[in-house]
Input
Amino acid sequence: MTDNDYMQLAIAEAKKGLGLTSPNPAVGSVIVKNGEILGKGWHRKAGLPHAEREAIADALTRHEKSTLRGATIYVTLEPCSTTGKTPACVDGIIEAGIAKVIYGATDPNPAHVGGADAMLKKHQIKVVSGVERVACESLIQAFAKRITTGLPWVIAKTAVSLDGRITRPSGEGQWLTGPEARAEVHKIRASVDAIITGGKTVRKDNPSLTIRGEAHSAEKSQPWRVILTQSGKSSLPQDANVFTDEHAERTIIHEDKTLTQTLKALAELGCNSVMLECGGILMQQFLKQQLIDELALFIAPIFTGGPDHGFGIGEHLDHSQFLTNNSHQQLGNDILIRGILKKS
Amino acid sequence: MTDNDYMQLAIAEAKKGLGLTSPNPAVGSVIVKNGEILGKGWHRKAGLPHAEREAIADALTRHEKSTLRGATIYVTLEPCSTTGKTPACVDGIIEAGIAKVIYGATDPNPAHVGGADAMLKKHQIKVVSGVERVACESLIQAFAKRITTGLPWVIAKTAVSLDGRITRPSGEGQWLTGPEARAEVHKIRASVDAIITGGKTVRKDNPSLTIRGEAHSAEKSQPWRVILTQSGKSSLPQDANVFTDEHAERTIIHEDKTLTQTLKALAELGCNSVMLECGGILMQQFLKQQLIDELALFIAPIFTGGPDHGFGIGEHLDHSQFLTNNSHQQLGNDILIRGILKKS
Output
């Protein structure tokens, strides 16, 4: 097993926390000594112990405290060096007698970066950073965006026909995509902290915007449901699902805010990531303002025609925006294209 | 080797003729005796020998005439029983002393179907049909459509952005897709007999609509280039590539014809298959009139916005049209979705 292999185990630990830890990032950790894995851990929820302390605690359930002396700890993110809701992880590492710290991504907070290295080295603990850096940075991309810009990571999700439409001819069913694609949407919802939609979508489709089915878990709070409207709450149907179901307290109305104001407010609420599930007009506004970070585009094998385009109609963007790190997969009869938007 | 295995060899022979044989279909044949392949052949061009006669001739280059006695011939399509430009294949099979005929697809012409069976059986030749039928029918789908409807098989090809547009913001390059996708377009061109475009596309993009690069071969005539216009030839730029290049005699202008009239005229010209390479307005007309049989949709990983939608704007179709037998593949950074349209 190489350092990269152990870091991959730490990444697997971190992934268990994806979608659960905001405003914190998902972090995983593994403690190794002489090729033996002494303990593993991941950050479960803001306010609960960080991944390093979880891994140390896990190790101590099966090993003497002395066994940890001289061990190496792998962490996907630079350990915290300041006390927040929980004590600094660096102190825990020093106390445990760990001899070497290997981490993947550096702390995206410019005020914290490098803090761990200095403190650890002062205690003769070796520090290596950047192992599996790309994968480790990917784990914290939403958190990093919020920390560095004050805006959450924005995932645009939509399902379109082959001709780019989002509605079918009248008299046909509501759905473009099949059950596999719709199950995937719930998985994406389970990875975010808020879902943004428009008043028009609430009026027309009456969506629930909740995590349901297999994607639902007891550990995950339902995402905030944020309804953007320019015509006031009274213009929305008061019996809509988002106002009347058991998660009604998770519904927020934003009236006459700019998109950036809405995103900033959600970041301040502790949202690392938000998902757009809205019609083409609103989608296009986010696109034009270069506010979309990631795309989840479902394409259904159907031609529909009709006035409802997934990304609106109108003028060219100022500049094309390119999808990078893109991948595609078949889900039932539908295709899902994902990727990260490179803005000009 | 089973009958299906030998038929697959015949299918591989037939495929060598795809795109070259109109108004005839692509057909392949293999002659087998005691597990030995005596000869193989494919139909190369209308007016040249059919696949069965090619296979017999091939066998006779290496074997005595007597060796063919008692052999089995595999053909992808029911052998012809009437004399056209070339003598009936059934006669050739009888003359060669072949004992058994195994074919895949039946003749789509209702006047011919079953003709071979009757004549062959009269000569004590065994006949089996329907081996690898689906694959064999797929080889002749364009021919079969023309024979049964008087219209050619229509492949709609377009390349769109993630938001369904076909043009980029001004000042950027012309292309949405990369070189791999564009090379694939030439391969599709090499499989059809005509390319239909609109006057607007000629005016705006000045396309050549020729087969170029690796897809080009000496055996394949350049497809007809058919320009649909409602404003007369004089409205088209007389110095456009389609009027001035070395294939200018392959350019046809259709003025004020309905789409069905255009397709019918191309069928009468001997076109089994045509390809649409046009803007969204014309594409949508073909779609609305349920004239599209097959789709080749390239999706580029780019958002552009803009007024030019790949499939136009406007009302819903009367009914959704579904893509069946669909597949997708990555070509460079682009995705190609192909499939056959099931019309209501």
Notes: The mean pLDDT of chain A is 96. The longest strand of chain A covers residues 316-331.
